[in-house]
Amino acid sequence: MADSSNAPLLQSRSSYGSTDKTSTRHDSIDSEAAGEIHPSRDVEDDVLPETSTIGRNLSWQSAYILVISRVVGSGIFATPGTIVQSVGSAGLSLSLWIVGAFIAACGLAVSLEFGCMLPRSGGDKVYLEFAYRRPRLLASTLFAMYAVLLGFTASNCIIFSKYALFALGLEATDVLSKSLAVGLLTFVCITHSVFPKAGVKIQDVLGWIKIGIIVFMILSGFYVVIFRPDTSTAPLTHQLAWEHLWEETSWNWGVIATSLFKVFYSFAGLDNAANVMNEVKQPVRTLRSVALTALGTACGLYMLVNIAYFLVVPIEEIRGSGELIAALFFERLFGEKFGRVVLPTAVALSSVGNVMVVAFAMARMKQEIARQGFLPYSSLLSSSRPFNSPMGGFIIHYIPSFLVMILPPSDSIYSLILDIDGYAAQLIGLAVAIGLVKLRFQRPDLKRPFKAWMPAVSIRIAMSCALIAAPFFRPPDYEGEVFYALYAVFSWVILVGGVGYWYLWTRAVPRWRGTRLQEETCVLEDGTTITKLRYS
């Protein structure tokens, strides 16, 4: 019999709860699985990589598309114009994109330290559970409520339906728009659930098409400058000359802050690969390189497409059109008829790619929530059968997304739901950043393949605090009938309600029954390990 003392501390098998071969936690974090151990659901083992029953099928390219398609969405066709409209000049607009990229890098540093230290699927869920273990199950409960209730992909489905109908020359009636949006969501969830490999290939292709469209826009703008300076669409290079770069700039801090927030949101999703770490080949190395490459790509694309806009569209027209900047760009380059088809088609394709990568990642995260035992029928929702995919996670993801798309009677309610989601995400981001600082002092022994620069962490915390406080300052000239910070209030109500729900089922009910809440680790037939919660 082999001496067990000479065996690796933890070995793995191809099942959830298993770990990749490693002797000192991260020393061999990307090595192939070998041997078998009894699956563990202990929080402390989150420092060890875990291989999904689906297998590690995501290559570097697929992980990169998963991130860049999430970051660079349909907003690239509208956000630059709204920022110029707010701040007034090309100079300040470009400066804000640079500052926003730096702030996004600070936020990414937090996610990378956590993701490389805790290489498990689930992203923020895993980080919060590891950093905030007391009170028991509180962090897990609050994040589960946020992810299940507010984690949806409705917005880009609706954007797709409106632009697709416009490109086809059809009237975007309420019924037709919602039907097409629901159809896209259904197609994406079924494709990823029933044909998982085909789903990954489709989203990879759509991701490269999106990048190709943006590169085409950039090259078109520079083509006019270099080869067609004498045409009616002559390049407006004087707009980028220093003496004109800052003309009509608005130096109002409130306006600048709001615009900076828009830029910051444009970089959201750089940590998307962290939600699927159990399926990524060489997870730590891939996460680190993919996220940094995507950050550089997004920064470059945003800056160059802004410059292309300024080279083609007069600044006066941009100030007056706002989010229609891309429409003006295409019309001036290709004519009104061609431009009216190309732009909506590009936006529609971009939206489809975004929906696919968001649904792909969110389903994995929600499967992790189901594995924790919080949801009814957790065994069914956690399983990867019958198609070797997280179908249960897609079901959890589909329901709130479907309801959000069909139930709101007005755009104002839909916008309110999106604002609540965005605000709650900032609360999560703040908790994650503070948790990182907490672990630096409490657990200096942890292996950190990537270590965030502490000033960067401080900037991330400050940015989150600013975004959390901003809604409570009355906007200038506000004349709305509802409270301007209503979405922030609702977010806090959901948070407080989550604490109340946690207290009820983890404290009050056990005391009333005279029992204790116990956690049991179970292994499903497909090899997935789950936690079952019961009173005993």
UniProtKB/TrEMBL annotation:
The chain crosses the membrane at residues 63-84, 96-116, 137-163, 175-195, 207-226, 251-270, 290-312, 341-363, 395-417, 423-441, 453-473, 485-504. Residues 1-21 have a biased composition (Polar residues). Its main location: membrane. The keyword Transmembrane applies. It is a multi-pass membrane protein. GO terms for cellular component: membrane. Residues 1-46 are annotated as: Disordered. It is found in: Membrane. GO terms for molecular function: L-amino acid transmembrane transporter activity. Gene3D superfamilies: Amino acid/polyamine transporter I. Keywords: Membrane, Transmembrane, Transmembrane helix. InterPro entries: AA/rel_permease1, AminoAcid_Transporter. It comes from the Eukaryota. This is Related to high affinity methionine permease. It comes from Fusarium proliferatum (strain ET1).
